[in-house]
Amino acid sequence: MSGQRDTADSDAQSRPMRDQAYRTFTDQLLSRQIRPGQFVSQRELVAITGMPLGAIRELVPRLEADGLIKTVPQRGMQIAHVDLDLIRNAFQFRLMLEREGVAHFARTAPESLIAEQLKQHIDTAAEAERGVSPALLQRAQTMDWGLHDLMIDYLDNEIISNAYRVNSIKIRLIIFERTRMLPDLVVSVMAEHLPILEAAMRRDVDGAVAAMDAHIASARARALQV
Hints:
The chain has two domains: about 1-80, Arc Repressor Mutant, subunit A (Orthogonal Bundle); about 85-225, Four Helix Bundle (Hemerythrin (Met), subunit A) (Up-down Bundle), CATH 1.20.120. Helices cover about 75% and strands about 5% of the residues. The protein is built from nine helices and three strands. The termini are far apart.
C-alpha cells in the first residue's frame, strides 16, 4: 500500500513538469522555433525547450499519442509535417467538434456574451476597412482562434476541449505553413464569423451550424490553396 502511495505521489509531483514541457514544446512549435517535418533528438529538444532530459523523455510518448511527432526508424523523431492527409484529417475532425460546439452555443450562451463577441467583430471589421496594422492583424488572429475556443469550451466537456486543443495545434501549423492571417483576410474572416454570431443571437441553431460549415470550408480551401 505504501509503495502505491509513493508511486502516486511521485507521479503527481512529475505531472507539472510534464505539462510544462508539453506547453513549452507547443509554444516553440507554434512560434516556428521547431518546424513541421524537422527531425529532432531528445537532447535537441532539451536545448530547444530548456526542459530537463527526464521531462523530455516523459513528454515524447504524449507527443506521439497526440500525433505531433513520430519515430522514423534509423532517423529519429520527426515533427508532424503538413501534407494533404493532415489537412483533410484535421479539418474533418475540427468540423465534427465545432458543429456540436456552435449548436450548443447558439442554444444556450447568454445573449450578453454573444452580443459582446458580435460587437468586437463588427468593430474589428470596420477598423480593418480603414487599413490593417500589424497590431490589428494580431488582434484579429487572436479573435479568430478565441471565438472557436470559446464555443468548444462552452460545451463544458473536458474530453472534447482537450481533443480540440490538440487538433487546434495541427490546424494552426497548417495555417502557418500554408496561409497565415494576411491583411486582406482580416475582413473576410470577420465577415465569415458575423453570420455565425448573428444566427446565435437569433437562437437559429441550424443557421449557426450552416455558417460555421461555410467558415471552416473556406479555411480548408485556403489551406489547400484552392
